[in-house]
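Appendix C: a fully annotated inverse folding record. The material below is reproduced so that readers can follow the format used throughout the book. The structure is listed first as tokens, followed by the designed sequence.
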């Protein structure tokens, strides 16, 4: 069994991994039903991230972790995520992750294995 490469999806080099299953780290932002991973906590704009295609993700997170209440985003947490890297399906993003194999969310020094 081969290991999954770790890729910084926020660099141009990430395009070399299109069509491959990769792992990456960033900050998961879910706002108005759109899920993206952005490079850091200073990047809450969903237009700057990598699209996450995972139907039911927010509902799954709600059952395992619980969303943020009272803000513009329902999730804004550090994640490690593994999935298939492809071109995005929207004009706002260049890349997307789908067929998610692993998602680990960290909040307040607690680690939540979601997938």
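Designed amino acids, in order:
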């Amino acid at each position: 069994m081969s290991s999954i490469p770790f890729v910084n999806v926020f660099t141009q080099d990430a395009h070399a991994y299109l069509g491959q299953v990769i792992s990456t780290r960033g900050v998961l932002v879910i706002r108005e039903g759109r899920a993206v991973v952005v490079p850091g906590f200073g990047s809450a704009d969903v237009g700057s991230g990598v699209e996450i295609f995972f139907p039911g993700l927010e509902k799954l997170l709600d059952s395992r972790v619980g969303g943020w209440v009272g803000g513009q985003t329902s999730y804004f947490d550090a994640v490690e995520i593994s999935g298939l890297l492809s071109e995005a399906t929207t004009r706002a993003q260049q890349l997307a992750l789908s067929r998610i194999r692993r998602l680990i969310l960290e909040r307040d020094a607690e680690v939540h294995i979601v997938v």
